Every structure is written in structure tokens, then in C-alpha cells.
Design the sequence.
């Protein structure tokens, strides 16, 4: 798992006919010309700035016959070594994104080098439509070892594997995972005689994950052994079947970390409705047809329920914001006086009905619409960890999934109302804790 620095567009903020970023880049590059292009995407209403993605395994580098293209392992920046380039244009023909350029004046290739970490285009954009993503920041949370086996047995496009792999990298070798039947079990247990991970895993039933963890936690305390005890289980277990035991463990302040990967349904057994399934969503047990319109009531919001237990640490997380998740994992595991709970939204391509390459995009939209805001609660204080300057309408999120295609405008507005009320409550709690801090 490698993370590079790169410039990314923030959705729907790039206006048509604006070339400020391109003009700033051209001024910086001089006779070479701009390496960023502000263009309309095909014939859509989407406009974005296009530049080098600083690939983790650059094809341009592999194609160069004279080793004139280098990738900085620390920053992730891919650079053309000017004095070494012979102008053969092999890199330009190879780049799948068309982001390698050729200067007829200098007779050599050139590309975006992120202005050595201070991108001119990002600073110049008056709409804040560009963001400099620093992948190196994530690396500070990761250990050297990748404990999960190569590949994945999860459904194509499922971000659960990414989240579980990152969780192992952050928490490290002194960790024991607990799970029960569910989507991620196939990653945890392995296949036939081969283990899925180098870390210890305890396979439980739906009804005894937390009680099993409690028993092992008490035993470890008795023998003086320290270990990270982590449950990685779905919403069907934690929000429904195992909720009583989870509530009791939080009240007793058991020392453990509980991670809920929430795909809003019993996806492993065929997309049945769970208590975290959203209003209006179509599942096999909340079907659509005739007078049936999908789930007819709002979902249970587990994170705030855990806050009401005065849980030592509570947070929400998303596979679209991995640095935020890694930081929260680190905080949660350092809690010494009680239970920590992290709720991660995991879009399900199979059950939700979207293309396999859209999971991260949907995860990001869930945050940008305030459908799934990112926040944390610790020491009696709730803080938003990723504030949205311009909220996107819930319709932009819903239209990407077939499970919502039946909704009428009034139903969309009803779900928007649920989202707005929930976020207002979260924002109110965050504002109150800030007021308490200032008094």
C-alpha cells in the first residue's frame, strides 16, 4: 500500500471558463508552458483541472530508456531529469492519462512536479477547487509490515478490504482481531489451509463477539499481558444482534476497540435490511413495488448512541479519508480507561447497486452531503474532523445507486430532511462542547 502526494479536484467547485490555475502554472513554468489544464469533461457539465497523478508505479518511468524519470520515495513526486532526457517521447506515448508533455523548444519531456511541494495552481485557485493531498502524512501512522494476504476475496470494488488492511497496518503486530459471520470474515479466516492474515483472529458467533473479547481482556489483565483487542464486525452484528452486549461493555468501560464496518444491511446473506439501512433504500426485506417504497423509516445512528453511553472514544470514519481514519485508530487504541468505538461507512457495490469503481467516490459524497459527517468524541467533547464548506444535495449521492432509483421528489426531500436534522444535532453538540471549552 503506497500513498503519493498529488493535486486533486474538490467536487463541483470548478466553474466553467475559468483558467486561473492554468495561467498561474504557465507563469511559473515559463517557456515550457503549463502542465495543468482546465477543461470540460466530455460534453458534461463537469469542469476540472487535469494534471499528473504522481502514479505509485509510473508507466512513464518504466518506458524511459535512459532512466531520466525518477520517483522520490519520500514525497512521491515523479520528476523528469532535464539533463538526462534525450527527447525520445517514449514517456509521452506511454502515459495512460496524457499528462506527460513535450517541449519543442527545449527538445525534452516535462511534467508536473508539484512545484516541489508548494503547488502554484492550488494557491492561485479563487474557488478552493483544488487540494494538495499529502500522502506522506498517512505513512506516519503505518507500520512497515502488511499483515493481510495479497489480493482479496471480497466482492469486486468493496472498500472493506482497504479499510481492514489499513487497520492492521496502523494497529500492528500486538493485535488480536475478533469477528463473526459477515462480509469481511473471508479476509480474516483465509482460505482452506491458508490463513488470511499474520495477526491473531478469534472467530465468534453473532451473539458473543463482545463477551468473548471481555473474557480474553480480563484474562490478559490477570496474567499481566498487554495487547490490542479489536472487534471488526458489521452493522448487522453491532447495531442489531449484539447491541445489548456492546451497550453493557461500554457501560462497564471494558478496555477494547470496536470497529463497525457499516454497509447498511445484511449484505453477506443477500442484502436484507438492518437498523442502519437508510430511509427509502431498497433491500430484499424492504422491497419496492406497488405501495412498497423501500425502508419506510429513518435509520439508527449508532455513533451518537455510543456517545450517550459516555464511551471513552467515539468516531466516524470513511475509506475516502484514510488519513483521518488512521489518526482516529491511533487515538482509539491509546485509550486506557474504557471502550473505543469507530463507525466506518463501507459502500457495497453489490447490495447498493453501483459500478465497482465508484466506492471511494460514493464514500466522499456521503461526507460532502453531510449524510455521513466525520467527527470524534473524546473527554466529553465532540468535534467535527472534516468540515464541509459547500454541502452537496443528497440527490447527488443517491442517484449513483440503484437502491434509490425509485424515490420520488417528496421522498428525496424527506431523506434530505432526516440528513439535515441529524447533522444539525451533531453540529449543535460540537458547538456546545466548543462553548464549554471557551467558558
Sequence:
Amino acid at each position: 500500500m503506497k500513498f503519493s502526494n498529488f493535486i486533486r479536484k474538490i467536487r463541483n467547485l470548478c466553474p466553467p471558463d475559468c483558467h486561473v490555475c492554468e495561467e498561474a502554472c504557465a507563469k511559473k513554468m515559463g517557456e515550457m508552458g503549463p502542465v495543468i489544464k482546465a477543461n470540460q469533461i466530455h460534453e458534461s457539465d463537469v469542469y476540472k483541472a487535469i494534471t499528473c497523478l504522481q502514479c505509485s508505479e509510473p508507466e512513464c518511468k518504466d518506458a524511459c530508456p535512459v532512466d531520466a524519470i525518477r520517483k522520490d520515495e519520500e514525497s512521491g513526486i515523479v520528476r523528469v531529469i532535464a539533463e538526462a532526457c534525450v527527447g525520445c517521447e517514449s514517456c509521452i506515448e506511454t502515459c495512460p492519462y496524457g499528462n506527460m508533455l513535450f517541449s519543442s523548444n527545449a527538445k525534452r519531456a516535462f511534467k508536473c512536479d508539484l512545484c516541489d511541494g508548494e503547488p502554484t495552481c492550488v494557491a492561485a485557485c479563487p474557488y478552493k477547487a483544488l487540494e494538495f493531498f499529502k500522502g506522506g502524512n498517512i505513512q506516519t501512522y503505518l507500520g512497515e509490515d502488511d499483515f493481510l494476504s495479497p489480493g482479496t476475496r471480497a466482492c469486486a470494488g468493496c472498500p472493506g478490504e482497504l479499510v481492514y488492511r489499513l487497520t492492521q497496518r496502523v494497529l500492528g503486530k500486538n493485535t488480536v482481531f475478533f469477528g463473526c459471520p459477515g462480509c469481511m470474515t473471508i479476509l480474516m479466516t483465509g482460505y482452506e489451509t491458508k490463513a488470511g492474515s499474520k495477526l491473531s483472529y478469534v472467530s465468534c458467533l453473532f451473539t458473543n463477539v463482545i463477551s468473548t473479547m471481555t473474557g480474553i481482556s480480563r484474562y490478559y489483565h490477570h496474567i499481566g499481558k498487554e495487547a490490542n483487542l479489536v472487534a471488526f464486525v458489521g452493522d448487522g452484528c453491532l447495531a442489531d444482534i449484539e447491541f445489548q452486549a456492546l451497550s453493557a461493555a461500554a457501560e462497564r468501560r471494558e478496555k477494547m476497540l470496536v470497529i463497525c464496518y457499516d454497509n447498511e444491511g445484511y449484505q453477506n446473506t443477500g442484502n436484507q435490511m438492518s437498523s442502519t439501512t437508510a430511509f427509502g433504500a431498497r433491500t430484499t426485506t424492504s422491497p419496492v413495488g406497488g405501495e412498497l417504497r423501500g425502508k419506510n423509516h429513518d435509520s439508527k445512528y449508532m455513533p451518537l448512541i455510543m456517545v450517550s453511553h459516555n464511551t471513552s472514544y467515539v468516531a466516524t470514519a470513511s475509506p475516502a479519508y484514510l488519513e483521518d481514519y488512521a489518526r482516529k485508530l491511533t487515538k482509539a487504541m491509546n485509550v486506557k480507561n474504557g471502550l473505543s468505538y469507530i463507525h466506518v461507512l463501507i459502500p457495497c457495490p453489490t447490495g447498493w447497486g453501483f459500478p465497482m469503481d465508484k466506492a471511494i467516490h460514493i464514500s466522499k459524497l456521503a461526507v460532502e452531503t453531510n449524510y455521513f459527517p466525520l467527527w470524534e468524541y473524546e473527554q466529553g467533547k465532540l468535534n467535527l474532523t472534516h468540515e464541509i464548506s459547500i454541502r452537496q444535495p443528497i440527490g447527488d449521492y443517491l442517484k449513483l445507486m440503484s437502491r434509490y432509483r425509485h424515490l420520488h421528489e417528496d421522498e428525496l426531500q424527506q431523506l434530505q430532511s432526516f440528513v439535515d436534522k441529524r447533522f444539525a444535532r451533531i453540529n449543535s453538540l460540537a458547538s456546545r462542547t466548543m462553548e464549554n471549552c471557551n467558558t
